């Protein structure tokens, strides 16, 4: 149960099925735009308009991202499609909730970071207890053998029970969070009045690919210029997002030199390809890959696929003349591939190499780069990688 | 970004090293606001072309006090080399036994890697 979206029913929500229903209710919409049930139909066409939340974000060229500072917009973009990430949190912006929770120190509801920290502390304590029990049992066996010549199994007590705790049977000895009923609600109100309110220093950060998808493919986001706060037109956004990858001296809205291998374009092709197929696409830096694909979203199940974007130049001359040094554009080594595959198979993800073909400048005129119509000239091909062990994989 | 309180602290360094500005801003916010490090200082590492952050890292063990660590931010799109890492060690006075390299991405995920000089035996 999240502290960021607390619900009034506390007892019913502790059952797993109720939690699942609650999650399905909050994250019901896969995209920010909602298509309501048609109330009027004329000749089979629905006349109700889709509900568009019209969110706003501020472009920040230094961090190459768009910031959603309005918490209502941030909640909508996260809950409908898992766009963006809180810049001080693991997933949705929960920093303010954690600070308020730390102040109140009641700890009845925990954010995901606090749950993880608590679980790690408990696991550490369990390992210490287990090591102590193993050492004690081994010492006892030693003593028994030395004095009486009797060999006893170290881990089993005389009556047959296990002395050494296992992960399933160990319980934490100290309860860090008091579980008794909290005092009535007027006490937190008094605390809030005494201490000044904490300023929310967190925002939801959208990568340039997510922001462009929301602007161009879904038309539910407006991007503002960082200095003038004026909404940018689609053409200005197209130029500014490509300029963000040029050296930092380039002015924001200047026309970028037309290059098919601009890092924004290459990574956007991959992002758009998988998003339009219905996957939720998030950053994969924790697993040494470019993107992770979730079937419904991070709150439902772990990601099934890990995508590595490999750009391929149609014309090698373009690569030689390129001002950008794209990652993975050079032939890779077996050790690199093996490392990434091993990391991902340990976390039960399938590795997919996604080859993006960059069109040759000699074949395609560079004026197509003035609009997103240039995407038609790229192609995406996937290669799925799995480790084959002939001795073990016989079925 | 100019309205963010961290900009007041980092403004000069961001202007001096614009290429690593995004990574520094993100790591600074993560350490001061989310991880709650104390005694934060900004160090200028000219050899690496960026600024580093030195501070006291809070620990959950009650027997150890907070330890001082140095974090060098860099972005995922950069390529770094061992000579770069060596320069980071030599530029710091006194030369630390280990530094943390913070790798940032555009969606604000940060991964920290501990880099030590030479082979280090893992703790028992």
TrEMBL record, chain A:
Any idea which GO molecular function terms this record carries? nucleic acid binding; tRNA-intron lyase activity
Q: Which UniProt keywords apply?
A: Lyase, tRNA processing
Q: Which GO terms describe its biological process?
A: tRNA-type intron splice site recognition and cleavage
Region ranges (Disordered): 1-21
Q: Which SUPFAM superfamilies match?
A: tRNA-intron endonuclease catalytic domain-like
Q: What class of enzyme is it?
A: lyase
Query: Sorted alphabetically, which InterPro entries does this protein's record hold?
Result: tRNA_endonuc-like_dom_sf, tRNA_intron_Endo_cat-like_sf, tRNA_intron_Endonuc_cat-like, tRNA_splic, tRNA_splic_SEN2
Domain of life, per UniProt, equals Eukaryota
Function noted in UniProt = Constitutes one of the two catalytic subunit of the tRNA-splicing endonuclease complex, a complex responsible for identification and cleavage of the splice sites in pre-tRNA. It cleaves pre-tRNA at the 5'- and 3'-splice sites to release the intron. The products are an intron and two tRNA half-molecules bearing 2',3'-cyclic phosphate and 5'-OH termini. There are no conserved sequences at the splice sites, but the intron is invariably located at the same site in the gene, placing the splice sites an invariant distance from the constant structural features of the tRNA body.
Task: Tell me the protein family, please.
Answer: Belongs to the tRNA-intron endonuclease family.
What is this protein's name?
A: tRNA-splicing endonuclease subunit Sen2
Species of provenance: Rhizopogon vinicolor AM-OR11-026
TrEMBL record, chain B:
SUPFAM superfamilies linked: tRNA-intron endonuclease catalytic domain-like (SSF53032)
One matching Pfam family is Sen15
What highest taxon heads this organism's lineage?
Answer: Eukaryota
Keywords assigned by UniProt, alphabetized: tRNA processing
Q: May I have one GO cellular component term?
A: nucleus
Q: Name the Gene Ontology biological process terms.
A: tRNA splicing, via endonucleolytic cleavage and ligation
Single Gene Ontology MF annotation: nucleic acid binding
Q: Where is the tRNA-splicing endonuclease subunit Sen15 domain?
A: 26-122
What PANTHER family does the record point to?
Answer: TRNA-SPLICING ENDONUCLEASE SUBUNIT SEN15
Regarding protein family, the annotation reads: Belongs to the SEN15 family.
Q: Spell out the protein name for this chain.
A: tRNA-splicing endonuclease subunit Sen15 domain-containing protein
Question: Which organism does this sequence originate in?
Answer: Rhizopogon vinicolor AM-OR11-026
């Amino acid at each position: 149960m999240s502290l960021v979206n607390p619900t009034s029913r506390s007892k019913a929500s502790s059952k797993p099925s109720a939690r699942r229903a609650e999650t399905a209710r909050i994250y019901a919409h896969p995209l920010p735009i909602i298509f309501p049930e048609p109330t009027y139909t004329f000749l089979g066409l629905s006349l109700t308009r889709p509900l568009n939340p019209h969110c706003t974000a501020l472009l920040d060229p230094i961090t190459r991202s768009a910031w959603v500072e309005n918490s209502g917009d941030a909640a909508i973009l996260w809950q409908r499609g898992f766009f963006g990430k809180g810049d001080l949190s693991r997933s949705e912006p929960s920093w303010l909730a954690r600070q308020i929770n730390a102040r109140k120190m009641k700890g009845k509801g925990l954010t995901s970071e606090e749950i993880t920290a608590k679980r790690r502390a408990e696991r550490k304590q369990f390992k210490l207890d287990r090591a102590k029990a193993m050492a004690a049992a081994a010492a006892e066996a030693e003593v028994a053998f030395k004095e009486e010549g009797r060999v006893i199994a170290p881990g089993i007590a005389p009556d047959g029970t296990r002395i050494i705790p296992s992960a399933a049977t160990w319980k934490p000895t100290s309860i860090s969070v008091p579980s008794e009923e909290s005092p009535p609600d007027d006490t937190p109100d008094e605390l809030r009045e005494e201490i000044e309110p904490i300023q929310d220093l967190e925002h939801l950060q959208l990568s340039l690919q997510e922001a462009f998808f929301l602007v161009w493919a879904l038309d539910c986001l407006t991007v503002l210029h960082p200095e003038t706060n004026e909404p940018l037109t689609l053409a200005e956004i197209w130029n500014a997002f490509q300029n963000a990858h040029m050296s930092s001296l380039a002015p924001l809205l200047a026309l970028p030199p037309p290059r098919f291998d601009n890092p924004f374009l290459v990574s956007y092709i991959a992002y758009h390809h998988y998003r339009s197929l219905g996957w939720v696409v998030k950053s994969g830096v924790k697993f040494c890959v470019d993107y992770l694909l979730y079937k419904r979203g991070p709150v439902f199940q772990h990601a099934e696929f890990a995508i590595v974007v490999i750009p391929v130049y149609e014309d090698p001359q373009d690569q030689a003349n390129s001002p950008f040094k794209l990652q993975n554009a050079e032939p890779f080594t077996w050790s690199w591939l093996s490392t990434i595959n091993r990391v991902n198979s340990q976390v039960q993800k399938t590795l997919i190499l996604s080859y993006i073909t960059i069109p040759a400048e000699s074949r395609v005129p560079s004026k197509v780069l003035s609009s997103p119509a240039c995407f038609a000239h790229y192609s995406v091909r996937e290669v799925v990688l799995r480790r084959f062990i002939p001795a073990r994989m016989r079925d | 970004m100019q309205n963010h309180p961290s900009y007041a602290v980092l403004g000069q360094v961001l202007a001096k090293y614009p290429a690593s500005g995004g990574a520094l801003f993100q790591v600074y916010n993560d350490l001061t606001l989310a991880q709650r490090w104390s005694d934060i200082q900004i160090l200028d590492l000219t050899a690496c072309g960026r600024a580093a952050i030195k501070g006291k890292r809070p620990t959950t063990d009650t027997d150890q006090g907070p330890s001082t660590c140095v974090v060098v931010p860099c972005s995922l799109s950069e390529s770094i080399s061992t000579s770069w890492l060596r320069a980071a060690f030599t530029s710091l006075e006194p030369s630390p036994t280990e530094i943390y390299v913070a790798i940032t991405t555009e969606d604000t995920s940060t991964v920290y890697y501990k880099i030590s000089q030479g082979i280090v035996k893992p703790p028992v």
